[in-house]
Amino acid sequence: MQLGERQAVRLLGIELSRKLSSSAFKIKKALSHIAWACSRAFPLTPVGVVKRTRLVIRSLMSLKASVLWFEYVRQSQLRNYISCEPNLLEAVHRPFFDHRICALERSHFLRSHFDSMAMHFSCELFQDVLLTRQVTLANLIGKNGEVFDVVLLREDAYKREGGMSLGLSLNGKRLLCLTFSMVKLQHELLIKVGGLQASNEQGRSSIKQATQALHGIQPRLLLIEALRTIAAAMQCQQIECVALENHIHKAWRYRFKKTIHAEYDQLWELAGGQRNLNGNFSIPLKLIERSIEDRPSNKRSEYRRRAAILNEMRAQMTSALSVPPYEGSLQLAA
Most exposed: 30, 206, 269, 281, by fewest CB within 10 Å? Predict the structure, then answer.
């Protein structure tokens, strides 16, 4: 073998050894994150062992996305909340917002959502939402003294549709929840709406009562306007709402378990939405309101009362969200 050939073989061996060493390090690092997730999420009980096994299998099936998510949680303040919400670690393995999104995209969505919360929310609001505490953003009085609360919360029931929810309550009883996430894409902050759910305890009669108490404003449209207020406060560039066929309950794993009763497409169109390139709906960031002079004369007083309710809600929400944002990063100090 010539000297040049020997040198080439030697260099090839060194490069191969380097790559094998690098791959071994990456595998070791990945297994370390998976082991950490298992130990933090589930105790060593018969049921916990089954859940740990499931978590390992799912993590290996989407290794890169899982490791990115576990590493993010492990190195951020989210790790302090795992004991309260262990299922947070499994979020990357479940459909999220749109059932067509792959695990790697889910990992990005989740990380971006929590980073955006830390960037735009006050310290108190950020921690309250993470701890699934209900935070009141606005308190409104209806036609006959009814009390409406617009609240921000995180609930386990809606965790697949988004990272947090806007809830509307009538006299202390929940009517509706609009679930959404905040995602940063290409230096733009977007809001992604994954669902609108009515409370199981409240029927059509309660929705009708609420509409009358709000001088004809539909509760679901009031929540959309509340979402627009959040978008304005956070300087979001777009609100995207999931189309019915893309809802997470249309995923194969939920197809025979969940039934969607809401008419999503009609609602987004009613709110001024139009289909976008993703197959979902983009709704306007601002409600286009007709001048009071363009209303029928016998309806003007009612529209003035509607406008007063909307303006009061916007003012209260803007005030609640205008507290200085969370100081520092979501990442833990080294």
Answer: 269
Residue type, 180: F
Contact 176, 168 (CB under 8 A): yes
Distance between CA atoms of residues 163 and 181, nearest Å? 5
Q: What is the DSSP code (8-state) at residue 80?
A: G
Alpha-carbon distance 179 to 159, whole Å?
8
Closest C-alpha to 94, from 58, 118, 123: 58
Matching residue, tokens 């309250």: 128
Distance spanning both ends of the chain, measured CA to CA: 52
Give residue for tokens 């899982």.
66
Q: Is 179 helix (H, G, I), strand (E, B) or coil?
A: strand
| Strands 238-241 and 188-198, sheet pairing | parallel
Q: Are 134 and 167 in contact (CB under 8 A)?
A: yes
Q: Are strands 173-185 and 164-170 parallel, antiparallel or unpaired?
A: antiparallel
Tell me how far apart the alpha carbons of residues 99 and 182 are, in angstroms, rounded to a whole number.
Answer: 17
Distance CA 121, CA 73 (A): 19
> 297: Cβ–Cβ under 8 A, 6 or more apart, which residues?
none
133 Cβ neighbours under 8 A, 6+ residues apart: 153
274-275 and 238-241 strand pairing: unpaired
* Helix intervals (H) in the chain: 3-41, 46-61, 63-74, 103-120, 123-130, 204-213, 219-233, 264-270, 300-321
Structure tokens at 313: 């809600």
pTM: 0.85
pLDDT digits (tens, 9 = 90+) for 10-43: 655 555 555 445 566 577 888 888 888 888 888 8
User: pLDDT by residue (tens digit) across 63-94?
Assistant: 999 999 999 999 888 888 887 788 889 999 98
Here the tokens at position 68 are 């990115």
Position of tokens 């303040």?
A: 77
